[in-house]
Design brief:
It contains 14 helices and eleven strands. By secondary structure, it is an alpha/beta fold. It folds into two domains: 169 residues, Rossmann fold, CATH 3.40.50; 179 residues, Up-down Bundle (Dehydroquinate synthase-like, alpha domain), CATH 1.20.1090.10. Helix 5 runs parallel beside helix 6 and helix 11 crosses helix 14.
Amino acid sequence: MEKLQTLKVDIPQKNAYSYDILIGENLLSQAEGLIKKYTKANKFLVVTNETVAKLYRSSLKIQNAAWVVLKDGEEYKNYDMLKVIIDAAVAHRLERKDCIIAFGGGVIGDMAGFAAASYMRGVDFIQIPTTLLAQVDSSVGGKVGINHEHGKNMIGAFYQPKVVLADISVLKTLDLRQLKTGLAEVLKYALIERTCGCEKNFKFFNYLKKYKDEIYKLEPDILSELIQICCTLKACVVNQDEREKGLRAILNFGHTYGHVIETLTNYTVFTHGEAVAMGMKMALKLSYLKGLIEESYYKKSLDLIEQYKLIDKIPSFDKERFYDEMFLDKKSQNGKLRFVLPNGLYTVKITADVTKEQIFQSLDV
């Protein structure tokens, strides 16, 4: 049996509801046995996309499973595709005790999870993330939903999976662009680590500087440790604030800008990670403009993003339109924009004390 790591997410507000994150190699071949330890479902609906189905449908063998294969891309994370999933659940006669499995990246996880939360007011849900972005971030924490034409993830719910199976072997088939889009979320954790509330100090910023080459080579031990660190940091935050009443908003570092970039480009120009990488650079500049961080830390953080070569060039945006679109972000409250901004070494804070002029200036990075 392959080496397997297990983490646990504990949510006190849900009567100590918890679930495991299993991280290891070649988990797909063991998936049916692992899944049956976490659900009593008799029927399964596997939701995936064309890319994953072509590569791995034959590797995931689950009895009494129907499959829904959707088109690949953020632009398909919408009402129409949600209905396709629900219709398939009805056709397969899923009952409340049955299970929907998300087998893909963040888009598939969000849509399948929202379908699981909605169908019969909730059926079992299992995540099998196939991208680095999904394995380090979106498969953990229970945020599920779809996009609206005026904003990303505007329609959704909090719905936790029964288990997350993170098979690092499947990451070998990611192209370089998709690998980088996951690395943007990885770098995010390095810049917020000390605000996550974990007892252990991973010194993740230094770790990422040290092991950049090994990460890009997808060396299993390093990759497994990287995913474990990211999931641990996220779990520390989710355990304290499942429904984003406060602390959990720090996980959106770079996303206030990034979501607007995705919306303005109709989700077709940049990957989520590319948009977040741009957003982190903008948020860092905003923090520097406000005097929250020293110039040395500002440059050091930008340098880490540059070292990973996550984006080529940030385009120019219509600043008035960009500013207006920000108010549709879920983090805005009482007509005020809230930002997650660095305020020290690997720490961030949430603030609404930002002027329009400062926002305009931060777009030029």
